[in-house]
Specification:
Jelly Rolls, 8-stranded antiparallel β-sheet, about 300 residues, mainly beta
Length: about 300
């Protein structure tokens, strides 16, 4: 059993064939199953198969899977099934099924997803201070609730170009429980690259000093994969407080979780020359979100 949380990706080993037609007994190979919370009580399941096949999902509160989606007979290799009417703050068991044109069926392994209540971004509209800014780049862009990675001065904040450490500090204005932080990076259109920092540390104020919560090394792509997300015209999915701006609706984000801590201030600290690979002396982003629960990146495409 694999816990997915709100949104996650799981590799699946296909089950055995349930049918034999014309001597062909190989079922489709299921892979890249993901669960995406598209509304507070709606979860969209995606998966791939190595050959065209049907789409169906069995789910329920136990591995008895007492509910099944309507089987979609369309033969596809990229599958999408929407599960609606789910109960908030509930863990569901789920498995996917696909049958090929010869009737051979594959059954994915059991995994779980949890439907949470709508997340609240604790950083939205809060006071923010920074180590220093490039001319015209306002720190207030970080907490305005708008993701505009290609917005330059109008939508992003960039540090000055010194080789000193850079940091962003958000005053939450009261003691709150903090569990995770998500950062949306700027996009440098002149060189067509995302400006994700190579390494940084999430820190919390303990009343007298900032203490480290977790260190993120984005150079380790096995642990911190390059996550570029594309939203449709409706913007970010429900549960995320931001509005996606810009023509492409594409954003790059990094998310980090840590043991719950009660604090009034959160700081993102970037060591010297640990900025983007193409511009290591700067820190350049468009939005920061702070949550009191686990918030992993949206669906990885």
């Amino acid at each position: 059993m694999t816990q997915l949380g709100i949104i996650a990706t799981v590799l699946v080993v296909a089950g055995s064939s349930l049918a034999t037609v014309d001597g062909e007994v190989t079922p489709p190979l299921i892979s890249e199953v993901s669960a995406f919370l598209s509304a507070p009580t709606t979860c969209t399941i995606h998966w791939n198969t190595d050959e065209p096949a049907t789409s169906q999902v069995e789910y329920g509160l136990t591995q008895l899977y007492d509910v099944s989606s309507t089987m979609d007979p369309t033969m596809v290799t990229y599958h999408t099934v929407v599960l609606a009417g789910l109960t908030v703050d509930t863990v569901y068991h789920c498995r996917v099924l696909s049958r090929d044109t010869l009737g051979n069926q594959a059954v994915g392994i059991d995994y779980t997803f949890r439907v949470l209540h709508e997340s609240k971004n604790l950083a939205l509209g809060r006071p923010v201070s920074v180590s220093g800014s490039s001319t015209g780049y306002l720190a207030s862009r970080i907490i305005d609730g708008v993701i505009a990675p290609t917005g330059e001065i109008s939508g992003t904040w960039a540090s000055d170009g010194s080789s000193s450490p850079h940091w962003v500090e958000i005053d939450l204005q009261q003691n709150v429980v903090v569990r995770s932080v998500r950062i949306y990076w700027a996009h440098n259109t002149s060189i067509s690259r995302w400006m994700r920092s190579q390494a940084y540390t999430i820190q919390a104020w303990n009343g007298s000093a900032f203490v480290d919560l977790t260190a993120v090394d984005n150079r380790d792509t096995m642990i911190y994969p390059d996550t570029v997300i594309t939203y449709d015209s409706t913007g970010a999915p429900i549960g995320f407080s931001v509005i996606v701006a810009g023509p492409s609706k594409s954003v790059e984000s990094s998310a980090a979780g840590f043991p719950s801590v009660t604090t009034s201030r959160i700081r993102i600290y970037q060591p010297s020359n640990m900025g983007p690979e193409s511009y290591p002396s700067i820190m350049w982003l468009t939005e920061v979100e702070v949550y009191s629960e686990d918030v992993v990146p949206p669906e990885i495409l």
